[in-house]
Write a structure and sequence with these properties.
The chain has 714 residues and is of the alpha/beta class. The chain contains 27 helices and 21 strands. It is globular and about 70 Å long. The structure holds adenosine-5'-triphosphate (ATP). Its EC number is 3.6.4.13.
Length: 714
């Protein structure tokens, strides 16, 4: 286990006590009293008036304050109470992650004593929990960008708080640029109106006399308040943001609630999974009560540690077995993610195995111990090769601080860093902005839809490389989303921008309505939007392979996914008479027997209903190609032509767009029986360059269906 000395100390302390345990026993009234007391004890509470004044004085404000000091939950309430929601305006708070938006909104609704969706609500992709009463709205940064498509001046908002800005997600970065221009536009239009008002009141007595005109004018005037923008985090370099916003004011909130002692290892840990496991059990057996949060790099790793925890528990004496493991990662459906927030059964300790999804913003009640191996899985995109790689890299200092900050929120905590202190010293201060390492097609499509034609001229806080912009523009042009002069095409580009999907998937849906196979494509896109439908336990590899074959389509992985989805439909329809619980139980059993991840399939079914609604609203024709699966394969070729590959003599493939030599992923139906030509969904580099989700196509279709690319090149 890690050893060392405490590093963080509290400057503000409140009496010890486990709020959530107490809460359960209290009635609603005393619960509210307790919440009110808790609110008062937060470090931010002592500076509430000052913060409100700062927001009143400055249009842009940067707030840096310790983790857990109360920024996310309290500031919106201070602003609401100070009258920032007059005229029915909203305070919007963006989060980089869905789970944070949902859980923080729930907490704030509870603190305000209202039902979620009334005064306090949240909105995330595929889920809206707001109403006409909502004034404090938590949402993902991506969602606010989408809102700007419909309301370019974000006129419903008086304040926007961009929380956890240190994460520098591509959405946060673009949002900052957009908010800067919205602020500008709103101030200008306000000045114009002010001038008009002055002129009119000076020269035009009629205005005062004409009640209707005056009322109209006032309405117009009041609708255009300046947009207040607040940028927040516990770990951001205020200087960068301040410079970007023309010397915006930055304030620091002092103090944290409870101390978190930091421990480092004395030696380098070569096997961090083994070290994590050892630390979990050392805490469990030697430390006092309190739950554990472990940061791992991905689903596979989480599932393997979960299995190892269960195995090791079997070897412990009966009185030491009271430990439950729960996991959280981004591809889990929201309702499954929420399980980590439920208390452990009485007398049990909970260990949460999480990716960096639980790194910022969230408070998980009961967490006292953090285990941080110091690693994260990050996506890197090479625009020249069109190659995405998933690489495990060291975290930044900012991330380490955020991770330790998940403890010390309800009482003192401990953070075990499974690396040496001098290793920590070598970590980058902050995380490399995502915009510098991701495929930009999606974001460029959205910017175009927002009317930003000159992407290179857009005021990014940090500009992506020119080659990344050019490559993405080229891709969008080839997909038909842009015209020759790089404007959004009508209707295809506009329709693509309306769908909350990767441009290539949106294009596949639009084309599918022409190929009469939108029903199959909707299923395919939904199934591809979740991590992995099939799983194969180590001890049942052969059995799971045989079961998977029963769904396999000779055309490839896409129709195999369609077969799984339809089989689940059939299964559920036959049990439509059962109660919801019984049906769900039967569904899970069926999934288990078929080596299907029930959580992923449930999630895919939800996504399917959402995007089906989207395409219906757009007026696309939803029809099935029935047995004419060739139509579906041709449609895949017409949409994924940029991802076509040809078999090489030695059995590998050459990706036609970039010449990369790639292998078929072992999970594919074509792993052994390889067709001459295929299209794939993903090209990912892990230990090799793999293509995943493939369908057999005829090479000649490419020139016929995508002449814009193949007729020129070949
Ligand atoms: N869901 C919750 N359950 C229990 N306590 C909570 C919950 N959410 C917040 N709290 C309490 O409110 C405090 C302030 O939380 P808040 O999220 O506002 O802090 P923050 O300053 O935004 O932290 P961070 O920078 O880590 O996001 C927490 O430390 C915790 O004590």
């Amino acid at each position: 286990m890690a050893q060392g000395q405490g590093r963080l100390n509290s400057s503000t302390k409140i009496p010890k006590g486990n709020l959530s345990d107490g809460n359960r026993k209290l009635d609603a009234f005393s619960k509210r009293q307790m919440l009110a007391q808790h609110r008062k004890s937060l470090p931010i509470a002592s500076v509430d008036k000052r913060l409100v004044e700062e927001v009143q004085k400055h249009d842009t404000l940067i707030i840096v304050g310790e983790t857990g000091s109360g920024k996310t939950t309290q500031l919106p309430q201070f602003l609401y109470n100070a009258g920032f929601c007059g005229d029915g305006k909203l305070i919007g708070i963006t989060q980089p992650r869905r789970v944070a938006a949902v859980t923080v909104a729930k907490r704030v609704a509870e603190e305000c004593g209202v039902n979620l969706g009334e005064k306090v609500g949240y909105s995330i992709r595929f889920e809206d929990m707001t109403s006409s009463l909502t004034r404090i709205k938590y949402m993902t940064d991506g969602l606010l960008l989408r809102e700007a498509l419909l309301d370019p001046h974000l006129s419903r908002y008086s304040v926007i708080i961009v929380d956890e800005a240190h994460e520098r997600t591509v959405h946060t970065d673009v949002l900052l640029g957009l908010l800067k221009s919205v602020q500008d536009a709103r101030s200008k239009s306000l000045n114009n109106l002010q001038n008009t008002k002055n002129k009119k009141t000076n020269n035009d007595i009629q205005l005062k006399e004409n009640g209707a005109q005056c009322l109209n004018f006032l309405k117009q005037y009041q609708g255009r308040t300046p947009l207040k923008l607040i940028i927040m985090s516990a770990s951001l370099d205020a200087r960068i943001f301040s410079e970007y916003f023309g010397g915006a004011r930055a304030v620091h909130i002092q103090g944290r609630q409870f101390p978190v002692d930091i421990f480092y290892t004395l030696h380098v840990e070569n096997d961090y999974l083994d070290a994590s496991l050892a630390t979990i059990f050392q805490i469990h057996l030697e430390e006092g009560p309190g739950d554990i949060l472990v940061f791992l790099t991905g689903q596979e790793e989480i599932e393997s540690v979960e299995r190892l925890v269960k195995e090791r528990l079997k070897q412990l004496p009966e009185n030491s077995k009271k430990l439950v493991a729960v996991s959280i990662f981004s591809s889990l459906p929201s309702e499954q993610q929420m399980r980590v927030f439920a208390p452990a059964p009485p007398g049990f300790r909970k260990v949460i195995l999480a990716t960096n999804i639980a790194e910022t913003s969230v408070t998980i009640s009961g967490i006292k111990y953090i285990i941080d191996p110091g690693l994260v899985k990050a996506r890197y995109y090479d625009p020249n090769k069109g190659l995405e790689s998933l690489v495990v890299v060291p975290i930044s200092k900012a991330q380490a601080l955020q991770r330790s900050g998940r403890a010390g929120r309800e009482g003192p905590g401990k953070c075990f860093r499974l690396y040496q202190e001098d290793q920590f010293g070598k970590f980058e201060d902050s995380t490399k902005p995502e915009i510098k390492r991701c495929n930009l097609s999606n974001i460029i499509l959205q910017l175009k839809a927002l009317g930003v034609d000159d992407i290179s001229g857009f005021d990014f806080i940090e500009k992506p490389t020119r080659s990344a912009i050019v490559k993405s523009l080229e891709q969008l042009f080839l997909l038909g989303a842009l015209t020759d002069d790089c404007k959004l095409s009508n209707p295809v580009g506009r329709q693509m921008a309306c769908l909350p999907l990767d441009p290539i998937y949106s294009k596949a849906l639009i084309l599918a309505s022409e190929f009469n196979c939108l029903e199959e494509m909707l299923i395919t896109v939904a199934m591809l939007s979740v991590e992995s439908i099939f799983y194969s336990p180590r001890d049942k590899k052969e059995e799971s392979r045989t079961t998977k074959k029963s769904f396999a389509s000779p055309e490839g992985d896409h129709l195999t996914l369609v077969n799984v989805y339809r089989a689940s439909n059939e299964f559920l329809e036959k049990r439509s008479g059962l109660s919801k619980e019984k049906r769900e139980k039967a569904f899970r059993k069926w999934c288990k027997e078929n080596f299907i991840d029930s959580r992923s399939l449930r999630h895919a079914r939800d996504i399917h209903s959402q995007i089906r609604r989207n395409v219906e609203q757009m007026g696309l024709r939803v029809a099935s190609c029935g047995d004419d699966v060739l139509q579906f394969c041709r449609c895949l070729a017409a949409s994924f032509f940029l991802n076509a590959a040809l078999k090489q003599p030695e059995g590998s493939y050459r990706a036609l767009a970039n010449g990369e030599i790639v292998s078929i992923h072992p999970s594919s139906v074509f792993f052994k029986n390889k067709p001459e030509c295929l299209i794939f969904n993903e090209l990912v580099e892990t230990n090799r360059k793999y293509i995943r989700n493939t369908t057999r196509i005829d090479y000649l279709w490419l020139t016929e269906l995508a002449p814009q690319f193949y007729a020129v090149q070949n």
